[in-house]
Amino acid sequence: MSRTYTLETGTAVVKTTGEETGGAYSIIEYTAKPGHARYLHIHRNMEEAFLVISGEGTFQVEDTIVTAGPGEYVLVKRGVPHNVFNRSDADAVWLEIYTPPGFEQYLEDLAQAAAANGGTIPPEIRNGIIARHDIERV
């Protein structure tokens, strides 16, 4: 069963959870608004892959910056600094594949924190959520 999360810079739809795959992986379809940007970060225990469905994503993996279009794939191995952007003036859609799974719980925790705080997540709460989910800003 899919679940949709509306975030500041896009929409995440959980397509497959770790529970559904026996703990093997999770898949999230992300629609990034123009101007979408995350921050340089690493996952110590999780690999992340992106498959662009439509539009264009810009991916920083260590010091390399790659712009990917439909059908193109970017892999980020454990412990590798990375970031993702939508630098275009149109929405971009990509699949995010996580192994082991867990990012879907991160989205749920963000949604609950936003709901409990009038739609805005205070930095100290956001930082606690980030730390619990194998995300380390660099």
Overall description:
There is one protein chain. This protein is α+β, with helices and mostly antiparallel strands. The protein has one domain: Jelly Rolls. The protein has 2 helices and 11 strands. It has helices at 103-116, 123-132; strands spanning 3-7, 10-16, 26-32, 41-42, 47-54, 57-61, 64-68, 73-76, 82-85, 92-99, 136-137. A 6-stranded antiparallel beta sheet has the order 1-2-3-10-5-8, with helices on one face. A hairpin with a 2-residue loop joins strand 1 and strand 2. Helix 1 (103-116) runs antiparallel to helix 2. The radius of gyration is 14 Å and the shape is globular. The mean pLDDT is 94.
Task: Break the fold down into its secondary structure elements and pairings.
Blueprint: E1 3-7, E2 10-16, E3 26-32, E4 41-42, E5 47-54, E6 57-61, E7 64-68, E8 73-76, E9 82-85, E10 92-99, H1 103-116, H2 123-132, E11 136-137
Antiparallel strand pairs: 1-2, 2-3, 3-10, 4-11, 5-8, 5-10, 6-7, 6-9
Helix pairs in contact: 1-2
| Total helical elements | 2
**By helix and strand content, what is the structural category?**
alpha+beta
N to C succession of SSEs: EEEEEEEEEEHHE
| Unreliable runs | none
The overall average pLDDT, rounded, is 94
The strands making up the biggest β-sheet line up spatially as 1-2-3-10-5-8
Compute the number of structural domains: 1
CATH class: Mainly Beta
Classify the helix fraction into a percent range. Answer: 10-25%
- Strand percentage lies at 35-45%
Cα Rg = 14 Å
Biggest β-sheet, characterized? 6 strands, antiparallel
